[in-house]
Amino acid sequence: MKLIADRLKNGEKPIGTFLNLGSQTAAECVAIAGMDYFIVDLEHSPFGLAEAADCIRMAKLKGISPLVRIPEISRANILKHLDVGAEGIIIPGLKTREETMQIPFSSCRIRSFFLPVVPAWCTLNTESLHALWRMQSGRMKDMKVSYIDHSGFLVETGRCYYLFDYYRKKLPQLDCKKPIFVFASHRHPDHYNPEIFTLLQEMGMEQVTAVLSKDISRRKYPDAEAYRGKLSVVTVNFNGAYGLPCETKLYTFHSTDEGVAFLLMCPEGVLYHAGDLNDWVWEGEPERDNRQMTGSYRHEIDLIAGLLQDKGIPAVDLAFVPLDPRQEKDYDRGLLYFLKKIPVKQVYPMHYWGNSDVIGQFLREYPEYTGIIQDTEAAGKGKA
Length: 384
Known about the structure:
Elements: H1 2-9, E1 16-19, H2 24-32, E2 37-41, H3 49-62, E3 65-69, H4 75-83, E4 88-90, H5 97-101, H6 126-136, E5 144-149, E6 152-156, E7 161-164, E8 180-184, H7 195-202, E9 207-213, E10 230-236, E11 241-244, E12 248-254, E13 260-266, E14 269-273, H8 287-310, E15 316-322, H9 333-341, E16 344-350, H10 357-365
Parallel strand pairs: 1-2, 2-3, 3-4, 7-8, 8-9, 9-10, 14-15, 15-16
Antiparallel strand pairs: 5-6, 6-7, 11-12, 12-13, 13-14
Helix pairs in contact: 2-3, 2-6, 8-9
């Protein structure tokens, strides 16, 4: 209830809604809509504790407050919903102060109880959920994306920066007090340029964490002793899980070229950067090699899908995925399989070697992905 309490303390009005669909997707859509909380309505809905627990977990992941309206008044009903993480209980059917005082609070782990008054209520149906989902495809709360060049992206959150596969060109103006993570998926010069650390030092960045794939030579590591601020290096290999500062969890996957792909989970959302993990099928290559490539790529994407399912995460928020016109008729193979297997809200195509027309070509051929596929060239330039 801290979010609601903070709103009220600041003189603001918290906004919430009833949730009558017992699914994590419905719960996520409420969070996407900008609500401060939702009330899982077990009094008027056909689902029960298990579905309520799924919705509560999603609320915790997305940073909003889950409340539960219980179907009947009993100590057991109150306790079991608190046990699965409800931050507040809505008691139905109360009419007098005396009835309120008879509720078995003393036998529960409840020290205080309040029901916030909200200015508007709505019940979400399937149509409105779809509308909210479409609305989210146009904006990403608390994360700003800037395209640097080629496969390089900067993602800014309220707490830190995530910089992926810097190659060349200038960075936007940065807050030197914010920590920055520099991810390099592999040693290829179009994905790792060690000059980035000199650039960050010149910009006065005070806290830098380099997250470098194991295949990068240590001779090209930044000099932590020469760096005037705080600089640390984390070496990562594929099939790894790493805890990073700023409440960031990193999972790595085996590239079909060199190095790794990154899957980040942070309080603002889930980010994926493919590096060179792609279905690199080429015209003229032996059929056996192309089949093996496709199998290896799909295996890694399936692993990502399985991890998301195991973690109860319904979708990736931001994804950066190759769309390389050099593959000619096979340019779309990797991205199409990714979209088929991974629920995702926004995809920024990359690795197109300056030929951004390939993004428009993809959308003309697959208009169903309009709203998901983003204009990479516009990211961070005020056009998106």
